[in-house]
Amino acid sequence: MGRATPWACPRVDGMSRPSIRAGIEAALHGAGLPYGYTVTIWSTGAVLIESHGNPGAGFVFLFAGGASAAYGLLKMLSRGAGGEMSRRMSASPNTLRAGLIHFSAILLAIAGADLVALVHDWVAWALGSFVATFVYLAVSGLELMLQHRELQPEAKDRATAG
Fold first, then answer.
1. From CA 75, how far away is CA 95, in angstroms rounded?
2. Which listed residue, of 72, 114, 123, 162, carries a Cα 20 to 30 Å from 50's Cα?
3. Is residue 9 within 8 Å of 19, Cβ to Cβ?
4. CB-facing half-sphere around the CA of 91: CA atoms within 13 A
5. Are 117 and 131 in contact (CB under 8 A)?
6. Each residue of 71-108: pLDDT tens digit?
């Protein structure tokens, strides 16, 4: 029997030993959306700062308000849509697709904020974070919807019958 490494997870007496890979997987399990949103919102702020300079406290409040308004609007729009899905983006059975959708959500959100940055007024601070939040969460929701459909045979049957 070969020597165990921290990257391997050999079985000893029917029990698996913890490995670095298992620890990393556990750490990443719930981090997908929060990580992507952090990258998105930070990048949005950077784009706006490049166009409009360092914001004062009032503009920071507008930025936070825009992001909060987008979240609230999406929450209202999705109310009654069948409850929360139990899957996480990082648990996708199609890792490549999930990664591409997640990456696209980040890029599209930042691109939207970059367009909003062209507005030379205080509204850019509220609208930039609104657009970035709305686009990121809406596009990310696509992967979660696809996961849900793949796991629900009756949903698949309805989609092909309609």
1. 26
2. 72
3. yes
4. 13
5. no
6. 999 999 988 776 555 556 666 778 898 889 999 999 99
Residue carrying structure tokens 């990393």:
24
Give the tens place of pLDDT for each residue, 120-155. Answer: 889 999 999 999 999 999 999 898 888 878 777 654
| 127 vs 48: CA distance, rounded Å | 10
Bridge partners for 12 per DSSP: 15
Helix (H) or strand (E) holding 111, with range, is: helix 95-116
Token pair, residue 65, equals 């308000």
- Tokens found for residue 113: 């904020």
Mean predicted confidence (pLDDT) in 27-39 = 87
* Biggest CA pair distance of the chain: 68
